[in-house]
Amino acid sequence: MQVSRRNFLADASALGLLAAVLPQIAAAQTTSAAQASPDDAPHDSYDFWNGFFDSVNPYSSNYGQKGESRGPTDQLPDPQAQTQYLHYDTERKRLRYASDIQEEELLDHDGDVAVSIALAQFRPGAGEANLKASQLRVDTTQVHPFVNIITPLAWSAIASIAPNKMGQISLDALGFKSPQAMEGTSKILLTQGTGKVAVNVSRAQAESMFIKALNIMIQGAKIAAPIVSLPAISVPALSTFTEMMSYWEDRTRFVMAGNLTTAVATQQALKDPDRAPTYIGLLSGDYLMVPQRHVDELAKALPNLDLVQGYLVAKDADPNLPLPQRAQSSIPGITYASMHVTVLPSDTQLSKPAASTSGGTSSCPSSSGSGSGAKKSSTPTKGKS
User: What is the pTM of this model?
Assistant: First the structure.
C-alpha cells in the first residue's frame, strides 16, 4: 500500500508537535496551579474525549456502528449542553433545525463533495459572562475511507478564545479568518457525500495544563491566531492527540458538548441504506449552534430573528447601531456560535474501487498510512479518585 507524503506529514506533524513540546509541558507541570474546584470545572474532559472518534476509528470495536454508540445521557458531560445545529434558510429568511433540511435541497451528486467551514462568531450569553477564556473546537471526519486506505481522514481546528476589554469576542480580531487559521476547517473531502461533524465549546482554567500545552503548541508552530489546525490527519492519530490533550486538561466546564453527528450533503448519501438514522443536512450557507438548555428560549424568539454575518439580530433592531451592538442586545441570555459552510461537488471518486494500472499500483492520487496512527493504548490511562 502506498503512503501519501502529504497525509503522512499531516499525521507526523500532529504527533511530532506533541513530542516536541513535551519537555516544555513537563517543566510547566511542576508549577501548575492547584486543582480547579468542582463548581468552576464540574466535567471530566478525559471521560468525554476518550473514545470520541470510536465510530470512525478502525481500531475501535465500535467502528462503523450505524446506531448511536455514545448517547447524550451516558457520554455527554451535561445533556443540557448538547450541541444543537440550525441552518439559516436564505429564501424564507428563517432559522430551522439542520435535521429538517429536505432531500431536494441537497446536492444531486453521486460522489464525493468538497466542504469548507469558516468560523463566524461566538457570542456567550449573559449567564456565561464569567467565561474569561474558552476553547472552541470543530471536528469533521470521513465515514468512508479512501480506496486502499485503512483509516478515514479527519480535519480539526481548536481555538482559544477570550473576550476583549468590552467583554465581547471577535473572531476577526483574533485572526481566525486568516488562511493559516482556517487550514483545519477548509478543503474537507467527504467521500460519498457524507461525513461526521462536531462542535464543542468548553472552558478550562487559565492555569490548567491544557491551556499551557495549547499555548506552547501555538508558539511552537509560530501561528499568529490562537488556533491549532490539523488538516487531513488520520482518525487514529487525531484520536491519540485528542485524548492526550484532554488528559492534560483534566477538569473543565462544557458550554456546548456534541458527539460526532452524521452529516449528509447529497441526495444519494441521504438514500444510502447504511446511513445512520440520525443526521443533519449539509448545505452551503450559515449554521448556528446552541446548547440544549437554550433551545426553548431561542424557539420563542426565532420568528423575530435574522442571522447577519454570523450574529443573531432582532428584525426590529435599530439599523443605525453597529452590528455587534445590535447582536449584543438581541437574546442576551443565549450562548451561540456560528459558521459558514460551503459544499461543492467533487470529481474525485476516492472511496470507490480504483482500476489497477499495469504496474499494479492504485490509480488513487493520494493515500494515508496507518503507521502514524497510534492506537488508543498509547494514551495514558487516567486514574479515578
Answer: 0.80
